[in-house]
Task: structure prediction
Amino acid sequence: MVKLLKKSVNHIFLLGYLVVILFPFLFVLFSSVKTDNGAISSNPFGIPTEFAWDNYVKAWVNANIGGYFWNSLWISTVATIATLIIGSLASFAITRMRYNKLSFITFQFILLGLLIPGNALLLPIYGILKQLDWLNTPMALLLPYTASAIPFTVIILAAFMRSIPSEIEEAAVIDGLKAPGIFARVVMPLSVPALVTVFIVNFMSNWNEFLLANYFLSDDTWRTLPVGMVGFRDAYNTNYAQMSAGIVYSVVPVMVIYAFLQEKIIEGLTAGGVKG
Amino acid sequence: MNKALRSPITYFLFLLPALVLFIAFFIYPVIVAIYYSFTNWNGFANYKFIGFDNYIRVMSKADFWASVKNNGFFILFSCFVQVPLIIFFSLLISNVKRLRGLYKTAVFMPSVMSTAVIGILWGFIYDPDVGLLNKILGKLGIDPIMWLSDEKWAMISILITNAWQWTGFYIVMVLAAILSIPKELDEAAMIDGATGIQRALKITVPLIMPIVSVVIMLSIAGAMKAADIIIVMTKGGPAGSTDVMTTYMMKHSIASFKYGYGYSISVLIFIFTLLITLAYQFLIARRAERIEY
Result:
């Protein structure tokens, strides 16, 4: 009996935490189908009496969700794949090719990147992009996104590639493969688990990135979803029902992906936290 | 045997793209920032060196130090409010078997979402008229609070939102450490008659100190990085009361083209972050010895 009571005390605290996390989402979900601010204000906690589904239609058009979603998707994907290719080439050279001293120095040099706080780079990179006249073009995000993920990517991939036994590549050498062949046909296929982890972490940080996207693109054409949503909020901040529908649009895809890839995402992000 | 993997050209070509990007977006910006921070560069071709003028100007401004203090609040809030909560909740989750998966999934969820959307969501919750928080307080008979537009409340409102987003992330990290502690230690203490609370405080907590130390390091790094949440929720207002160094820097450089001045703040962010990290490493983290089971 006492034991049962103790267990339920744990659950009471944890369920309290759960409510604090989940209730805001529920609040937004309910608000998104209410007719206007008055309806939200008079019945903030409950399920609406009248369902105003057209909030979703209006928000989709007014917030340009489709356009921003597409920008976020292709910019994040291209930058993530570029990092993956560049990072795995470098990791292969550092860990598998026989230039140990040079590789050690290169690796330490790239590790320096972890010491440099990203916010200190924000303004200098802005200045550099401005001089190159790249502000307001997709390049203003693609290049910094690709570059900023390199240290983390090289650390994770190098650690993984180092653990591949050298017998495997010796066999490949006997079969007549040169370094690029060993990279593409032996080491890369074996590194898929690490590549997946790095892909998820980098993609999510690009997808959610706000600071650079906010300052480097002032034009609406290339805006990504986070910045677009903030712009929508600023324009429609008197209409919370519609804004809630916008929030639902941007939260649901992430939640669906999280539901499917949960284990991999948690593993990757916490590894990224520890290493990065 | 080694011939295939000793090809200078291949080696060079494989490393080249990574090194070019790394130098262009990490090393070069730092050099640029240091160089121009000693000039009055305003985006045009001609500029002149003005020594430490920019630094003296920044450091003599009260509102700059107010923004530094806000970064400090982020650090203090995570060390003294979030870390105890993280330890408490990860102990609770490790203690239950049922629903453990659900708790883990749910507490981690906010950290996969974009800070921008979370800022918007909480802006709605904090809204004085229709927001959730004032509605709840209203039920308890408390007068509405202007969460984000009152200088007294704006900073704490942001800190709470930030904690709401990131606490779960660290809980999952600490939970993994707790679950990897060998069961025998706990069982031995149980046989010796230690109560649950004694076991948690005397056995589990000391054993997870290394990971807690990592959590504090990451929180400090996060506190120095926080800026997006402020731009989304208050834009540094009301009256600059929620500015952190980064938002202060952007506010006082881009719009007025005072790049030299802004770069000196960049360099200060760099120095302050490094100093705090090193101070923590040498003063505190070193004492948390490595523990072998």
Summary: Chain A touches chain B through 101 residues (CB under 8 Å). Chain A has 14 helices and no strands. The mean pLDDT of chain A is 89.
